[in-house]
Specification:
Blueprint: H1 2-20, E1 30-35, E2 49-52, E3 58-60, E4 66-72, E5 75-82, E6 89-96, E7 101-103, E8 118-121, E9 135-139, H2 140-145, H3 151-156, E10 161-162, E11 165-166, E12 174-178, E13 181-182, E14 184-185, E15 190-191, E16 200-206, E17 220-226, E18 234-244, E19 263-273, E20 281-292, E21 297-299, E22 308-309, E23 319-320, E24 328-330, E25 334-348, E26 351-364, E27 380-397, E28 400-416, E29 448-466, E30 471-490, E31 492-493, E32 507-508, E33 517-522, E34 525-537, E35 540-552, E36 556-558, E37 570-575, E38 583-585, E39 592-594, E40 598-612, E41 615-626, E42 646-650, E43 658-670, E44 675-696, E45 702-723, E46 729-742, H4 749-755, E47 765-766, E48 773-783, E49 787-796, E50 800-801, E51 804-805, E52 808-809, E53 816-817, E54 821-834, E55 837-846, H5 881-884, E56 896-904
Parallel strand pairs: 1-7, 6-8, 12-17, 42-45
Antiparallel strand pairs: 1-4, 2-3, 2-5, 5-6, 9-16, 10-11, 12-13, 14-15, 16-17, 18-19, 18-56, 19-20, 20-25, 21-24, 22-23, 25-26, 26-27, 27-28, 28-29, 29-30, 30-33, 30-34, 31-32, 34-35, 35-40, 36-39, 37-38, 40-41, 41-43, 43-44, 44-45, 45-46, 46-47, 46-48, 48-49, 49-54, 50-53, 51-52, 54-55, 55-56
């Protein structure tokens, strides 16, 4: 009966949405607008033809001389105004950005004879008059000049961003958009695919109050528009190699061994028209292979199968069964492959079809200090993903167009030692405990096996119309269906029928009804809708919209939290040999209820008020909702609870959306012909954040369940100075003052506090990423056609940490600060022409001055280089205490030098 009523409600919802034609949509195009007037009299010129060259875009001026050209992809254009009896005027170097209006007026001179047209080179506007909230825009030209490796590096360079945390929010509060489609994996809220810099036409980081068209984000939006093939066939091959070069040999093992191929990259791009189709069909494609050995090394003194005995008090009586070859092994390497292809077919001036495919694979490892002498015993990790996006862009008339999109994305993550979970190379988990008390592991393998994937299907329709010269309306609908698969278990020793381990060791997978084995497939469903009006009048620009979100997890929750298991499922007399003290569960009468769908309405408004032709005030306000990452909804799908101790964490399909209310006010002011200033203040009130509640069952067992309990607030101000692009110099500087506080940085904070017998935090404390002062600067000098040097400098005050001594907290959470961090990166290039081709030689140096920034610290001293731990007793292993306490992973990456070249095809 419930499923039938749910269907009726959903069907009614769809009817309402379609009748109103409302939607979620991320911008992929901008707008050109302006007025055509007589250069001598200033009178309006109607019926002038305004044409965007090398495109099919254009418009005719109305009776008052105004024109509007919608649906302009981001980029740099030449625009021509033509009219009988007037001189033709062409303006070049006009830059168009997504969601913004570029204003360009024309004033041709009258002529009685055919006269040669005039060409004007436009200067990039330093002030964006229709900016109603903070938005950083980085175009392809700027990306090519900067010393950055991926789009996440570009995001972290923007004001208010600290290592993926935008304006003090959790990193999961960001949504990633690619050509108007979300590529965010709803399971973890990370990007499902990697977007290479070479495919980005424009990247926007929206850190203020974003418009109603953007959803499922509370802190920021990263919106990427990809490149398309041009009218000429062109390509590029780029390759480089490098290594980490540092004198800090006492911290970084093997750093003095220089291998020029420890980092290598090869990337090819090719784009242009297909010859047999003329200019109707174009393509743009890239392929990249990248390897980085990393700077964190281990030494293979032990193989995973080795065993040792350090139980005796006399070290001379220890047994050390080391069979390793003592070779150096990279413990955090990365091998990445990616492919991208985009095909665009222009059926007619009003119909454009495009399809893009993006695929990635990444094999990597994460450094675990305890495996330094047994590096083969730690996890291997595999990350795969792809996205397909089909788009039909149809121009109804010069003032209205719509887009119909279908997309599919897939993200797969796996973590294990060996692909075969019953591989005979797995060893008894007791081997991991042979060494102890500040000793590196002398054998053993990690025993968890984890794999999960998310498949998303998306359909979207949106329509944009310049209803009048003042009002531009956007509206449409989006539906998203997900398939979530997860399978995780712990490999355990096989036992006989009476619970004794079989010798020699045999790996065994516990049955699905055991607490250390979880598996599920779920199908959550989302609908999103919005309507938005961009109002542009002479003295004000406003973005006003309202957004609707619907989410159905299609899952259940226990009716009684104190009895989350099926009725009569616990039989204390039936022991589980693979989870000692925890009963086997048997099937009983279900005691669950289906979760009702969640519906949210969120209004948003932003206003820009020009005060002069060189200055504009802006203010904005909005409500922003986000469904928590799905991993917290479906955790522990069998609702299993250990009979002894607090070890279980249970998902909650009845979670409310997390909520943020944002206020922002700012000023853009052009200080001179070449310098602009942007000052913005903001405040965020965050509620319903994900946290933990501890429950005790009727039989005395305890478990943790995710609920909406955490809260926080963020306030701050950003100040940015930017210079105009020139052929010889570009510079920018931004400063952020920010205070980010909350009762917890991690949704699991209460769980860890209870395990440590600590009282959970009830007051606002600095969040883990609370960086009070942040300064970013970038400068590029040179002659762009021949040579150039770019520098990026960053400074940030220390992040907080919680003081403790010998494992006991001695002050409030996050009451002390780590040392500040600062860094300089460099890119230099020299262009030359050889055998008819354009070559570019380049040098990139990350951490130019080889600064040892302390990203983690010992909590008893607040430093990475020393601790008060002095006499913990006998170190039961082959290393000394001093060796163990040297933590290369507590520092940032040392100097990384890369040398390469590119050749244009």
């Amino acid at each position: 009966m419930k499923s039938k009523s749910r269907f009726i409600r959903f069907f009614s919802l769809i009817v309402c949405l379609l009748s109103g034609i409302t939607c979620l949509w991320a911008g992929t195009s901008g707008k050109l607008a302006g007025r055509v007037t007589d250069a001598q009299t200033g009178e309006a010129l109607p019926f002038a033809n305004i044409i965007v060259e090398e495109t099919t875009l254009g418009d005719a001026s109305d009776l008052d001389g105004f024109y509007v050209i919608l649906n302009v992809p981001p980029g740099t254009y030449a625009v021509t105004a033509k009219m009988m009896g007037y001189q033709e005027v062409k303006i070049t170097n006009i830059k168009v950005a997504v969601d913004f209006t570029t204003t360009m007026d024309f004033a041709p001179n009258p002529t009685v004879i055919e006269a040669e047209g005039i060409t004007v080179v436009a200067e990039r506007e330093l002030i964006q008059m229709d900016l109603t909230s903070t938005r950083a825009v980085v175009d392809a030209e700027r990306i090519d000049a900067l010393p950055v490796e991926g789009f996440q590096d570009l995001v972290n360079l923007q004001a208010g961003v600290v290592e993926g945390h935008i304006r003090g929010g959790r990193s999961s509060e960001v949504v990633y958009m690619l050509d108007g489609i979300s590529i965010t994996d709803p399971f973890s809220h990370e990007a499902a695919v990697d977007v290479e810099n070479s495919v980005i036409q424009e990247l926007q980081v929206i850190s203020g109050t974003f418009n109603a068209e953007y959803g499922q984000a509370m802190s920021g939006v990263v919106n990427i528009v990809t490149r398309e093939g041009g009218n000429k066939l062109s390509g590029r091959i780029t390759t480089y190699t490098g290594d980490y070069v540092s004198n800090h040999t006492e911290t970084y093992m093997n750093i003095d061994h220089i291998n020029p191929f420890s980092t290598y990259n090869i990337e090819t791009t090719l784009g242009g028209p297909f010859p047999i189709f003329g200019k109707k069909l174009s393509f743009y494609a890239t392929a990249r292979r990248y390897y980085n050995e990393g700077y964190l090394f281990g030494k293979r003194i032990f193989n995973a199968s080795d065993s040792c005995d350090f139980s005796k008090d006399n070290p001379d009586e220890w047994y050390i069964g080391a069979t390793g070859d003592s070779s150096m092994v990279p413990m955090a390497p990365t091998l990445k492959n990616s492919l991208y292809g985009k095909f665009t077919y222009r059926l007619s001036p009003g119909d454009r079809f495009s399809y893009n495919l993006m695929w990635k694979s990444r094999d990597f490892r994460a450094y675990d200090h305890t495996f330094k002498y047994n590096p083969d015993g730690d996890y291997n990790r595999y990350d795969r993903g792809y996205s397909n996006i089909f788009n039909w862009n149809h121009v109804i008339n010069s003032k209205t167009f719509f887009e119909l999109k279908f997309a599919n994305s897939f993200h797969d993550y796996r973590q294990y030692i060996y692909k075969d979970s019953l591989d005979k190379r797995y060893v008894d988990p007791e081997r991991l405990q042979d060494a102890s008390n500040y000793a590196f592991r002398t054998g053993g393998t990690q025993m968890r096996y984890f794999c999960r994937n998310t498949t998303s299907y998306i359909g979207k329709f949106d329509i944009t119309s310049q209803v009048t010269n003042t009002h531009q309306i956007k509206l449409g609908v989006e539906l998203r269906k997900h398939k979530l698969f997860l399978h995780e278990f712990e490999i355990v020793p096989k036992k006989d029928e009476v619970g004794r381990e079989i010798h020699p060791f045999e790996p065994y997978i516990p049955p699905i009804n055991y607490t250390n084995h979880n598996k599920y497939t779920n199908y959550p469903f989302e609908v999103a809708a919005y309507i938005q009006d961009k109002i542009e009048v002479k003295n004000m620009i406003a973005n006003i919209g309202v957004r609707f979100d619907y989410f159905d997890p299609y899952w259940k929750i226990p009716t009684d939290p104190r009895d989350p298991n099926p009725k009569d499922a616990l039989h204390p007399d039936t022991l589980n040999p693979y989870d000692p003290g925890n009963p086997i569960r048997v099937t009983g009468e279900p005691w669950f209820e289906d979760v009702e769908p969640r519906i949210q309405i969120s209004p948003r408004i932003g206003i820009a008020y020009p005060i002069t032709d060189r200055g504009v005030l802006h203010g904005s306000y909005g409500h922003f909702f986000q469904i928590p990452p799905f991993e917290y909804i479906y955790t522990d799908p069998e609702f299993e609870v250990y009979a002894a101790g607090l070890t279980s964490r249970m998902g909650n399909a009845d979670l409310e959306p997390q909520k943020t209310v944002i206020y922002e006010i700012g000023l853009q002011q052009q200080l001179s012909d070449n310098i602009s200033l942007d000052v913005t203040g903001f405040f965020k009130n965050i509620r319903n954040l994900l946290g933990i509640r501890i429950y005790e069952t009727y039989i005395g067992s305890k478990y943790a369940q995710y609920i909406n309990r955490d809260y926080g607030n963020v306030r701050g101000i950003t100040v940015a100075l930017e210079g105009r692009y020139s052929q010889y110099l570009y510079a920018s500087l931004d400063y952020t003052y920010q205070i980010a506080k909350g009762n917890a940085s991690d949704p699991n904070a209460v769980f860890w506090d209870v395990l440590a017998n600590r009282e959970p935090e009830k007051f606002l404390v600095p969040l883990d990423w609370d960086q009070m002062h942040t300064l970013n600067g970038a400068v590029t000098i040179g002659y762009s056609q021949f040579w150039g040097v770019s520098l990026i400098g960053r400074y940030g005050t220390g992040l907080p940490y919680t003081p403790s001594h010998e494992g006991i907290r001695i002050a409030r959470e996050n009451s002390e600060r780590k040392p500040p961090q600062y860094n300089v990166d460099l890119r230099a290039y020299y262009n030359l022409k050889l055998i008819g081709s354009n070559f570019s030689l380049f040098l990139k140096v990350y951490n130019l001055f080889d600064i040892m920034n302390e990203v983690n610290v010992y909590t008893d001293t607040g430093r990475a280089g020393y601790t008060l731990i002095s006499s913990p007793g006998v170190v039961r292993g082959i290393n000394t205490l001093e060796e163990y306490l040297i933590r290369p992973d507590f520092y940032c990456a040392p100097r990384h030098v890369i040398l390469g070249f590119s050749v244009d095809l």
